[in-house]
Design goal:
35% helix; 26% strand; 393 residues; 2 domains; 16 strands; alpha/beta; Aminopeptidase; Alpha-Beta Plaits
């Protein structure tokens, strides 16, 4: 992989950062140690400014190129920092030291790669303009990207474009994947509370069993995409959590269900919400019960702007070679709050392959571990992106 020589020289240092972050994961908006670690490194590198506290635990580093501030354009490069509420099962020497919390999505690697790029850019200054390195909190479910935008990210740090990147273990290590238009789906969180009437399990005729009603609703929800969304469009409805009852022989008063919906086109999202409400409410009513439905739209679709995608693709090819940079055949149904930044500013979001073998655990799995071999690839991509878009006069 033709990575930048200077970045290759501190590969071991980046690995140390990444594994330290992995051992000390923090959940959304609780990334206090992580933010302090990032800010300390950025100051050590000699960044011109290090701003903390945006979106509570977010950090932005400001690096001016040759000629100093105000000379040339500006771009933003974003990494996410938060972990997931998962119990790690890797058994690695640097496995999570925090019970029930794990870097299962590779945000530790994202942070380390952008730190590597920041070190290189602050040291070489081989560009004319300003590079903003954005370390975002709370990507997982809490919309830290939205909070950063609402707190004036783009007003305080005026950049022409903003770029994001995610490691992807199903892609061979060191390869890049790009796509114009939708790259990740819009996300809604679904919660349905079914209220019936509790009773003795041996005498169900004295109650109105919400578990039976919930089962009917779960089955019916699967027909929404299959029989209402055009086959050439995409949509997902998944119920991932059901909670009701406490013992063998007591019918509970209520059952709570939680799940997710995903889509790309706004009209599909509207249809999914309408049908979830209609089916859950109608089925509960037919059984003489009640269903309270929440359909909370969390993240919009992540949509790449064409010109920015071409710039990102050019930088990826400079690092990995043209034959290792591929167009994605289709977007993924995963969600990403970088979408809020792309709604406010032109930009693009790429995937960086991290797969060692075809059988590697995927993200959000208790056995997942970021591939440290790709750290200099990602850092070189970020540095190249800045140098190509802001060439030194």
């Amino acid at each position: 992989m033709p990575i930048l020589n200077r970045i290759a020289e501190f590969h071991d240092e980046m690995t140390g950062w990444r594994q330290d972050l992995h051992r000390h994961p923090e959940l959304a908006f609780e990334e206090h140690r992580t933010a302090a670690f990032v800010a300390e490194r950025l100051r050590e590198f000699g960044c011109d400014e290090v701003v903390t506290g945006i979106a509570r635990t977010g950090v932005v580093g400001v690096i001016h190129g040759a000629g100093g501030p105000g000379q040339g354009p500006a771009i933003g490069m974003r990494a996410d920092m938060d972990a997931l509420p998962i119990e790690e099962q890797t058994g690695l020497p640097y496995a999570s030291a925090t019970p029930g919390v794990m870097h299962a999505c590779g945000h530790d690697g994202h942070t380390a790669m952008l730190l590597g790029a920041a070190k290189y850019l602050a040291e070489t200054r081989n560009f004319s303009g300003t590079a903003y390195v954005i370390f975002q909190p709370a990507e997982e479910n809490f919309g830290g990207g939205d909070v950063m935008v609402r707190e004036g990210l783009f007003e305080r740090f005026p950049m022409g474009r903003v770029f994001g990147m995610h490691n992807w273990p199903s892609i061979p290590a060191g390869q890049f994947a790009w796509r114009v238009g939708p790259v990740m789906a819009a996300v809604a969180n679904i919660e349905i509370l079914v209220t019936g009437k509790g009773a003795h399990g041996a005498m169900p005729n004295n109650g109105n069993d919400p578990i039976v009603i919930a089962a009917q609703i779960v089955s019916a929800l699967q027909s929404i995409v299959a029989r209402n969304v055009e086959p050439v469009q995409a949509g997902v409805i998944t119920i991932a959590h059901i909670e009701g009852g406490h013992t063998f022989n007591v019918i509970p008063e209520s059952v709570r269900m939680r799940g997710t919906a995903r889509w790309f086109r706004p009209e599909v999202g509207d249809l999914l919400e309408r049908k979830v409400r209609e089916l859950a409410g109608g089925i509960a009513t037919a059984f003489g019960a009640a269903a309270e439905v929440r359909f909370d739209r969390a993240y919009p679709a992540t949509v790449n702007e064409p010109e920015s995608t071409a710039l990102a693709r050019r930088a990826a090819m400079a690092v990995a070679g043209e034959n290792r940079v591929h167009e994605m055949e289709s977007p993924t149904m995963g969600g990403e709050d970088f979408s809020f930044m792309l709604n406010a500013k032109d930009g693009a979001y790429l995937m960086l392959g991290g797969g060692r073998t075809p059988h590697d655990p995927l993200v959000h799995h208790p056995l997942y571990d970021f591939n440290d071999e790709i750290l200099p690839v990602g850092a070189s991509y970020w540095a190249t992106l800045a140098e190509q878009q802001m060439p030194r006069a």
